[in-house]
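Hey, quick one: can you model this chain's 3D structure?
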Amino acid sequence: MQTKYPEEVYVLIAISSVVALLLIGFIVTLVVFYRRKQYIHEQELLKTQLEIQEQVFKDVSQEIHDNIGQVLSVIKLTLASAPLKKEDPAYEYLQDSKMMVSGVIEDISDLSKSLHPDRVLKIGIAEAVEFELNKLQKTGQFRTSMKAPEKHIVLSTKNEIFLFRILQEILNNIVKHSDADHISVEMDFDGENTSIEVKDDGKGFDVEKTLQKSTMERGIGLSSMKNRMKMIGGVFDIKSAPGFGTTIQIYLKGDRNTTDTKTTYPDVED
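Sure thing. Here's the predicted structure for all 270 residues.
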């Protein structure tokens, strides 16, 4: 025989169920709110770190150009004015020293240009990336190729700098880890959206295994690049396998806030 409970019991059960559901809903909402707040905080923190980094790069670039570059130029001028004739035993050593100083001056100049964010904005991201590839080719260790976009890429100041730093990091990783002979970059801009593909013919790697490693084991390169792309609303995809090189594809939707790219930077030397 089925036991019949008082009506109050059913009301209490119903109220308890509603309260439980409300409590669960509140907890879920709280967790989602906390995670969203944490994500926003992490993004703001990363943005601040990147802004500080760009200012440091700018200061270091200016210091290199204004001080180290000038000191080396004075040394080169001093060597050139040394009163030695060709028949002097020290003449050949002097010429070698002048050539070495000239090489260092050129390397310092390239480094200063790569670090200075204003220069990227002045010449555009496509030309800045081509400059980086030419630097690598000049080392004699890599063959590089570049397919520039038919249209000039137009991005907001922030997006252009962030995207360029990501591409610098990609090239840096190729140099350090890939054992590649050839590096190619293909860029396209349809008037609104930007797509970039970076390929190397190096040794490749297992992407899934690498991403599963701890930060200490794999470094911060991949995470940093993915986070930066996520921050500016872009997509970062990497395909690789041992023995088959690596292909990285980047896609960035059109940024309507591009008016700040019209700024000119007359104080930045080429």
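One thing worth noting: The helical segments are 7-80, 91-115, 117-123, 125-138, 157-178, 207-212, 215-218, 221-231.
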